[in-house]
Amino acid sequence: MARPTVLVTGGTRGIGEAVCAALADDHELIVGGTDPAAVDAACERYPSARAFAADLTDADAVERAVRELGLERLDGLVHSAGLLGSGAFRDLTRDDWRRTFEVNVFAVADLTRLLLPALEAAQGTVVVINSGSGLTANGPGGVYSASKFAARALTDAMRDELRPAGVRVSSVHPGRVATDMQIELNEFEGREYDAENYLRPESVASAVRAALTATPDANFDMVSVRPGPAATNRS
User: Hey, what domains does the chain have and what are their CATH numbers?
Assistant: First the structure.
C-alpha cells in the first residue's frame, strides 16, 4: 500500500518543521515554504519529500504551484504557516489587518479550495494550526486573535461542509510554543525569552499526527494543547 501524502505549509521551521519530522518515517511529504532554498534544504532532511515553494499571499503563485504538483490524491493538508501581527489597536493600520488575515485566514481557505479535489479523492484530512488566541482574545495583539477567531470559524464551516465528501477537518490550538514567533512576541512584550518556559514544537506535532492518523470513524474536531507542569509559563 502506498504511503499517505501530506502537504505541510510553513514546513521549514517551527511547528511545521516538527510536523514534517513527526510524519517523515511513514508519509510522503510535500514541504511548503516561501523561500525555495529553505524548502529544498528541508526536503533533503527527509527520506521522501517534494517542494512546494510559494508565497501564500500571492494567489497566482499559489495556484501555479498547486498545478505544478499535479496531485490526484492528497491524504493530508496541514496549515502551519502563520503571521503574528502584534501591535496595539490604536497603532494598527488597515494594511496591518489585511496582511495578518491574508496569511492566517485567506491563504488557508484558498489553498484548501485548490487542493479539495485531491483531498476528496483520498478522503483526506485538513489540519489547521490555530492558537490559544483563537479561543480567548486579549489586547494588545487583537489583530492576531481576530485572525485566529476567523480561522476557527472557517475550520468549523469547512468541517460541516466537507463532511459529506469524506474530508475530515481538525483545528489544533497550542498555547505558547518555543518558536521564532515566540521570540518575536517576547520582544514585543519586552520580556526575556527562555525556550524552557514554553511548549516544544514536537508536542504540538504529536497532536497534529494524531489528527491525521485517527481511524476513519473518528475526527479530532478541536484539540487544545496547553503547557504542562514542566513548562513554567502557563499562558
Answer: 5-225 (3.40.50.720)
